[in-house]
Amino acid sequence: MVGLRSEESLLTQMHHFFYIVYIMPARDYLGEFEHIVLLTVLRLGDQAYGVTVRREIEARTRREVSIGAIYATLDRLEAKGYVQSRVGGPTAERGGRSKRFFRVTAQGVSAIKHTHRALRSLTEGLALLKTRS
Amino acid sequence: MTRELPHPHPPRLAAWLVALFTSAAQAESILGDLHEEFFDIVSKAGIASARRWYWRQSAETIAHLASAGFRVAPWSLAGVVLLGFLLRRFDFQLPEWIIVAILRAQRPYSNLHYGFYVWLVTYGIPIVGVIQTVLIGCIVAAFAKGREIVATTTLSIVSPFAFLLHFLLVGGHWSNSIFIFPWRFLIIQVENLVGLVIGGVLVREFRSVVARRFSRTSP
Fold first, then answer.
1. What pLDDT digit, counting tens, does each position of A50-88 carry?
2. Is B2 helix (H, G, I), strand (E, B) or coil?
């Protein structure tokens, strides 16, 4: 009986797994680092470019990140339509190179909301989190 | 009289390597960001620590950009690598054919240029082989726009295994010397690696120069 139940539960889990994989591309869920980068760009407003995004993430998450990781993520987010970029003027402090500023689109904001809703629903009623807070 | 300290600048080799793995538009912003942070660290912690930081950031940036190059449109990258592999496969004996054709046309052994004949037989085939590999690297890089180095490096890493697999599965008319003298196979693979990547670097540099000229002339 116990074995049958565990098999049933496994089948249900597998069913959920395939359902999640099936719906994932259609929904606006964000990966962990995508989520962090998108929130940082949102916080920085008009001043969001590689250097400021990197510093803000390091300051707030105490996690060292590389410029390459930020650009790879921002390019992916831009391809999904969650951020837009524009090129600023070249400056001397950057060796005559220009900055690429980013801003979050309405679709990006909606993706953040979807992810937050999903996270809230997952953390709701968890005793572990309640005691820690 | 005080001596003026030399103006610090970021490591050029690191900057060049980062530029190789990025598209021209991306290189502008990424290198600008690295430059800005480099001078910030120079003013806070000194040049040595800024240089260390720059090298570490460059290595991490290259790793991220290379992996992003694989993830974005992996099938097109696989197609380009397959094209390069097929070119290598079918042009494998081309250097030998070219040298034999030259020898037949010029008949250097029948005249006074015997030294040239010996030189051509000894070094001609490897030299033509390197030129051919560089050209294939250029073709692959031309198709892999923005991912020239990723495509050529992948091809150079994949091709020895693909050649072996192809030989084991399909068979072929390879020269037996490859199996009698494994060092020859090794030399061909090193030549592959270097030649293909040089081809990729040439195309990438050419595109960077064109992009820089275009950005200067455009209003």
1. 999 999 999 999 888 989 999 999 998 998 999 999 988
2. coil
